[in-house]
């Protein structure tokens, strides 16, 4: 990972950039870190200054040195034109989507998308007269058949939250661009260290910064990065909607980013080790992790990604709810809860059959999503081994 990312014009390796980004000690009395800037009002000295709007910062809602520091580093990581820091991952998703669509337009969304992304389309876009249809995440170039004159955006999440289908982004981007539609990618799983959607044809990339960027389950943030042609509409959408991210949250993102490379490497190693081990357990039907050779999209993952994340799912053999409860209720190290990306391991049951509309989820069994944290691998395996025993006993 010490190499520069493919297609990047970074002067240094990613680790060096993460360690040094945004540090301007000369402007901070020599302090090594950019401090938390809080503030709404930013002062102008003269009427000329106020009217020319040439100052770097004009009003706190549009950013401050702490938020700008994060935006700069994510821009570099994604080889983007610009980035904005949003107050949550979901707000990053909604800003990106709204920047592409007007009343009468339509968006195509992967059937595997994070559920709140889908809820936004159903509960908000449709009310605004914007259509949303869902497509098979494995559709690839055939997405061309779904694109109409009204399709202005295609939303990709690769791999999908919960079910981990890997999408053929270059093929989707080619089909979308042939009809003038923009491609938005939710890149939260891989982080820009392991997947660089703008280099594969996407126009906009969003992150739930809450997850891997923050890395400690203690702050909310999102980012929207784009190529130049998509940027003006994104910036305008954020300004009109009035989204604001505080310097306090930005500071925690900047701090998390310092260790992103080393954490991603460790999460990757641990998650893959545990995924392989789970494949050999008798209660396990399938492990849904794109870096496993058994995964149906392994070849696409291998072609387009340079690593894998902390998150994957395991499909347990069919068993009643009591077995699932027996598995989940008495874990010692894995905790049950939403979100992921922190130092601590998490698990949550997933029910794709409740939301899917493009392709029915036909897999029998209990699906559990795991986030592998930074605990000792053998401790985590022992916790899961006990859970699998309880699952089998209640089956
Ligand atoms: C968590 C998540 C989001 C939303 O992020 P929040 O910060 O919780 O709003 C978006 N996409 C994916 C893939 C996520 O896992």
Automatic annotation (TrEMBL):
Its cofactor is pyridoxal 5'-phosphate. Pfam families: Cys_Met_Meta_PP (PF01053). It comes from the Bacteria. PANTHER family: CYSTATHIONINE BETA-LYASE-RELATED. This is Cystathionine beta-lyase. Belongs to the trans-sulfuration enzymes family. Keywords: Lyase, Pyridoxal phosphate. It catalyses: L,L-cystathionine + H2O = L-homocysteine + pyruvate + NH4(+). It comes from Devosia nitrariae.
């Amino acid at each position: 990972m010490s190499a520069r990312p493919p297609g990047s014009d970074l002067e240094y390796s990613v680790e060096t950039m993460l360690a040094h980004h945004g540090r301007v000690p000369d402007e901070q009395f020599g302090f090594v870190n950019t401090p938390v800037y809080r503030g709404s009002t930013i002062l102008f000295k003269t009427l000329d200054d106020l009217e020319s709007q040439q100052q770097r910062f004009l009003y706190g809602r549009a950013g401050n040195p702490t938020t700008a520091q994060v935006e700069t580093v994510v821009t570099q990581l994604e080889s983007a034109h610009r980035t904005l820091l949003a107050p949550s991952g979901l707000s990053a998703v909604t800003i990106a989507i709204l920047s592409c669509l007007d009343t009468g337009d339509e968006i195509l969304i992967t059937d595997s998308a994070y559920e709140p992304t889908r809820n936004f389309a159903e509960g908000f876009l449709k009310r605004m007269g914007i259509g949303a249809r869902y497509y098979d995440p494995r559709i690839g170039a055939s997405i061309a058949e779904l694109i109409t004159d009204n399709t202005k955006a295609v939303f990709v999440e690769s791999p999908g939250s919960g079910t981990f289908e890997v999408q053929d982004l270059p093929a989707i981007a080619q089909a979308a661009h042939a009809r003038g539609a923009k491609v938005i990618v939710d890149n939260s799983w891989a982080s820009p260290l392991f997947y660089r959607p703008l280099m594969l044809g996407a126009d906009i990339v969003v992150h739930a910064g809450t997850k891997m960027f923050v890395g400690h389950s203690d702050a909310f943030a999102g980012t929207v990065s784009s190529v130049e042609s998509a940027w003006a509409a994104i910036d305008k959408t954020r300004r009109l909607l009035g989204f604001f991210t505080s310097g306090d949250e930005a500071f925690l993102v900047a701090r998390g980013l310092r260790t992103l490379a080393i954490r991603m490497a460790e999460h990757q190693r641990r998650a893959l080790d545990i995924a392989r081990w789970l494949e050999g357990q008798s209660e396990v039907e399938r492990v849904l992790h794109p870096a496993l050779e058994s995964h149906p999209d392994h070849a696409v993952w291998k072609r387009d990604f340079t690593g894998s994340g902390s998150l994957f799912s395991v499909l347990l053999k069919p068993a009643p709810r009591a077995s699932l409860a027996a598995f989940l209720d008495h874990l010692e190290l894995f905790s049950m809860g939403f979100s992921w990306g922190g130092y601590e391991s998490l698990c949550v049951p997933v029910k794709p059959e409740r939301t899917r509309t493009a392709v029915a989820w036909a897999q029998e069994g209990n699906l559990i999503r795991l986030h592998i944290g930074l605990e000792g691998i053998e401790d985590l395996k022992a916790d899961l081994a006990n859970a699998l025993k309880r699952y089998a006993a209640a089956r």
